Amino acid sequence: MLPRCLRAFSKPLCIRFQENGILGTIANRHLQFVGVNNFSSTRMSGTPQGLSLEKCSDKKDTLYKSVEIEIRSGEPAVLLSYEWFTSYAAKQLGITIGKCWAPPKAHHNRLTLLKSIHIYKKHRVQYEIRTYFRHMTYERLTESTLKTFLEYIQRNVPEGVAAKVTKKSVVNLPPSLNDSVRRLSLQ
């Protein structure tokens, strides 16, 4: 049951709460998970401790058809462990996991230098850098879920791992194209 001070509002309302380390938001009677990072609540007079009030935005969430995350590192074991971590986090948030794969070979970058800086051209040293890749695909996400998920996994990226995120969003056709599609369908 909401406190009396909250029942008086007729406009859309967001209530943020923190109880036993769990953070969340109730927006128009729908519960949403917010996150577990530093959370400061402002207490208004007449509201229980840990609740804060703020105005809801009427902006709709963007839908993403798929999100591909490419991670790269010099250690394949670190990439495998991080893939397991992100997949586990996605399962906990209810995100649909698509294809997770890695190329069969690492990318080799070789550099050949002279041993001596002035002479002895036939004496050389060769250095090699191997870069391993892993690709993970997550499907059918909303913008708010994606922001929460990406923030969580990007804060826990191990040392020496680089991540690249590619998003494919679902958008409406522009009105000019929508009219031409209708005309073609009527013919």
From TrEMBL:
Q: What is its main location?
A: mitochondrion
Pfam families per UniProt: Ribosomal_S10 (PF00338)
Tell me the SMART domains matching this sequence: Ribosomal_S10
GO CC annotation: what is one?
mitochondrial small ribosomal subunit
Keyword Mitochondrion belongs to the record: yes
Q: Which UniProt keywords apply?
A: Mitochondrion, Ribonucleoprotein, Ribosomal protein
Q: Where is the signal peptide?
A: none
Q: Where is the Small ribosomal subunit protein uS10 domain?
A: 68-166
> Where is it located?
Mitochondrion
Superkingdom, taxonomy of origin:
Eukaryota
Transport: is it a keyword of this entry?
no
List, alphabetically, the InterPro entries matched.
Ribosomal_uS10_dom (IPR027486), Ribosomal_uS10_dom_sf (IPR036838), Ribosomal_uS10m (IPR040055)
Which family does the record claim for this protein?
A: Belongs to the universal ribosomal protein uS10 family.
Q: What is this protein called?
A: Small ribosomal subunit protein uS10m
Q: What organism is recorded for this protein?
A: Daphnia magna
